[in-house]
Amino acid sequence: MSSPVLTCPHLSGALTCPPCPAGSGLADLTHLRLAGGAHRCAGRVQVLHEGRWGGVCALTWATPAADVTCRSLGCGPALRAAQVSVGPEELTWVESLRCEGGEGNLLECELTRVPSPGEAQEGQVRLAGGPHRCAGRVEVFHAGRWGTVCDDSWELRDAQVTCRQVRCGHALWAPGAAQFGEGAGPIWLDGLRCVGTETHLARCPARPWGEHTCNHVEDASAICSGEVRLSGAPDRCAGRVEVRHQHLWGTVCDDTWGLREAQVLCAHLGCGPALEAPGAARYGRGSGPIWLDDVTCTGEEPDLFRCAHRTWGQHNCHHGEDAGVVCELR
């Protein structure tokens, strides 16, 4: 996702607007700031909503919106409007924004607000019943109710769209037969046939909503990579362990790395039990940062990040000590 950045003349005066109380609804979007710039009149556009700062999607960002923003901040006309990439974990409060340029604040522009966390919207997808947020039974919100997806024709391409929609990386596995337990309520989708490039599951060809020949023992599931992946091996359940932190992929040092740590990782990836926990870069040397060292798990953690470890990026290793794993392939 990209977020707009703009630069305004840096004025000595400041315009003070009455702050809106956190959580007061769409009116919070009149409270703006420019983050990460050299001064208060330059930076990434953020709005305050429900007590938290979030961005504005840059797809519809243009100079008129930048002018309105600069003016509402007491910063004069916009000198430059640009876009910058931000991570998927950053909140986005405004999905689209179209201004004429003469509005007093962004709220007077034509905008579409991103629903608040916890506020389900039509076609929203979640993964339920799994060991972490990136694995579980696929559920879709439709007509005000959560329902499941039938596993008829369900395959990795459908899971890929699901993983993309919930921002969990790429699909590792697309199990059916209620792998993560039977759901309840309606079965909303059946006969899904995604290409794999769709942004939302509801955009894939399927039977009409609620029309199916299934029961909940056929509920479809997805297991996504999330912030972990295995590299350097031919199958999905073996390889060099890599984790993502601060938008960068890096490796794990083999100090203290053993079967308990490997077991946590295998379970996270939807693979079978850990068979080996090789070190010494068996699957080749990685590149980039070495993110984790001295990882120590009990074996019961839902993911590797819940295990004890040194501070991110703190280590006494080199890539010749990159940790690997071999899990049973399901």
Tell me what the structure shows.
The structure is a single chain. The chain is mainly beta. The chain is 9% helix and 29% strand. The chain has three domains: 112 residues, Mac-2 Binding Protein (Roll), CATH 3.10.250; 100 residues, Mac-2 Binding Protein, CATH 3.10.250; 100 residues, Roll (Mac-2 Binding Protein). About 7% of the residues have low confidence.
Q: Quickly give the CATH architecture of the largest domain.
A: Roll
Tally the beta strands. 19
Let me know the average pLDDT.
Answer: 80
CATH homologous superfamily placement of the largest domain: SRCR-like domain
Helix content: under 10%
Question: What proportion of the residues form beta strands (DSSP E)?
Answer: 25-35%
Q: Return the structural class.
A: mainly beta
Please report the first level of CATH classification, the CATH class of the largest domain: Alpha Beta
Radius of gyration: 23 Å
Element string (H = helix, E = strand):
EEEEHEEEEEEHEEEEEEHEEE
Task: Quote the distance from N terminus to C terminus.
Answer: 34 Å
Tally of helical segments: 3
* Number of structurally distinct domains: 3
Q: What's the main sheet like?
A: 7 strands, mixed
Which of globular, elongated, flat, extended, rod-shaped describes the shape?
flat
The CATH topology of the largest domain turns out to be Mac-2 Binding Protein
* Poorly predicted tracts of residues: 7-28
